[in-house]
């Protein structure tokens, strides 16, 4: 393996996050109160989220938002992360394109999620909150928040999607090792969970359901706040450390990306790697393509509609303007648990509607083939989620070769897959399949949404 790494110093960890909301040509529509349909203000979110996260959610004026020292101190545990020129993969493909990846899998919990877990736990602590709660799909976000909660001395309850709770028991153990309480969702501990179990006793859960349960716990427990790992503007903001570092590392490599790719669940790692580069498209300095790589089984950006929808299954959250498949969409049990979410964050949705970013939907088997090639050529076993970005990078490199061009392609390796080996086992045994949703199924599901756009 002849891959080349570009390494920054600790002092190069960014001192501010990049707030794309301040510079977007068209700002997203406002979030709405579901009862009154009136636009929300930061204060309206205070009962649910921490005050600082709520303010960041609505901040569309400050281009740079300072990273607190306490957060940067914790970022130092693993940041800056390496940028790698994937020469092994280039060689395996025989491509003339240059492929780079930003390696976010080197965090202690194995994914990018810690970038936002730390500031959110910090803001909770600073505000005097004692308990936080959240949902987790594959367990990556729950693991990250468990570590952050422990560091800042907060109690944490995590609702983990039932299918992952059973498929990925080690992520549960990781959370418990850090000291979090983990509950399989749907559970009997909330009204939302009890209703879903009563209606459908075998339901294996979804992120939407788990969010409903966590929101219900937060709003019915004193001094407890809800913390979200994706979708929201403030989470995308925190993740921009990825792209800001990558921008400097691409300078070290003496190149600028033609294409930047991130896999897509709710949008946090995609936003993190792309927004700092997108800002140079706004000024006309560059004309980079940005591709969100989503599963064929949960294709909100490629096949969903832009409409106001709830962030959760039960309809407890504000109405968010998002590309959605409908908040009760039940995605197939693919192994990329972190991508099994019905909607896309408001910022990314607006960027997609304005044609400033693109999306691709990838079948599960193609992602595992890409993962295996990447593991064999670069030595890193990628998370099934990240494999969607790898598969898309491979598609783009092949397309460039067919067109007789050479491109500079950058993708985000959002996490490693060392705790997902059961999924690889099934792939190697030939037991995995693709799950395509038809446009008719999607049309039927979104037809239930109130047409506010
Ligand atoms: C959670 C997760 C994702 C998907 O979430 P986004 O908010 O879209 O980034 C992707 N990759 C990994 C490794 C994850 O843990």
Give me the secondary-structure topology.
Elements: E1 4-6, E2 16-18, H1 42-45, H2 51-58, E3 64-66, H3 69-75, E4 83-85, H4 87-93, E5 98-103, H5 114-126, E6 131-136, H6 140-151, E7 155-161, H7 162-167, H8 169-178, E8 181-185, H9 191-199, H10 207-220, E9 224-226, H11 233-253, E10 259-263, H12 268-282, E11 289-295, H13 300-303, E12 305-310, E13 319-324, H14 346-353, E14 358-362, H15 364-378, H16 386-402, E15 408-413, H17 421-428, H18 439-446
Parallel strand pairs: 5-15, 6-7, 6-9, 7-8, 10-11, 10-15, 11-14
Antiparallel strand pairs: 1-4, 2-3, 4-5, 12-13
Helix pairs in contact: 2-11, 3-5, 4-15, 5-6, 6-8, 9-10, 11-12, 15-16
The structure holds pyridoxal-5'-phosphate (PLP).
Residues 111, 113, 140-141, 230, 263-270, 338-339, 383, 385-386, 414-415 line the site of pyridoxal-5'-phosphate.
**What is Rg?**
20 Å
Assembly annotation = single chain
Q: Which distinct ligands sit in these coordinates?
A: pyridoxal-5'-phosphate
Poorly predicted spans: none
Largest sheet, described in full? 7 strands, mixed
Number of helical segments?
A: 18
- The percentage of residues in β strands lies in 15-25%
Shape: globular
Please count the beta strands (DSSP E, at least 2 residues each).
15
Helical fraction equals 40-55%
Q: How far apart, in Å, are the first and last alpha carbons?
A: 51 Å
| Lateral arrangement of strands in the main beta sheet | 1-4-5-15-10-11-14
What is the overall pLDDT average?
Answer: 96
Secondary-structure content class: alpha/beta
